[in-house]
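Hey, sorry to bother you again with one of my protein questions. There's a protein on my desk that I can't quite get my head around. No rush at all, and the record is pasted right below.
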Amino acid sequence: MRSLSRLLSPERIVWLSSRDRDAILTELARVHTSLDDTVPFDETLRALVEREQLNSTGIGQGLALPHARIQKARNFSVILGLHKEGVDFDSFDGEPVHLFLLIIGPTSENDMYVQILARASRFLRSKAADILTAKTSDEIYAMTLEF
């Protein structure tokens, strides 16, 4: 299993400015496709929106794990987005989301996909307060070394 530190890097940690769920997904998809062009932006965004329409990926406590499996994806891609004010993401607890960990993965890697989702969830739940008070992406990236 790859550690989060191998999937995330400082340039994959971004501060978000969008004000609603669809705009957040768009912003995250743009960051993803700027770093990984194997799947076009429109296809990435469509997969994320379709996944969100099934059930919100807002997991509560100000956290969301938007994710999608895409056939054209060759590798896993992870983006961590921070939003200072928080965004209504239709989380089950009704709280605004401040941390978004986007995961894009190939359809052929189901076991790895589930493992990454689980590790990402543990990371966000245990480090949320530290992430939100961090000043730089390098500082946040250093937190992933444990995961």
Q: What stands out?
A: The first strand starts at residue 13 and ends at 15. The chain has one domain: 13-140.
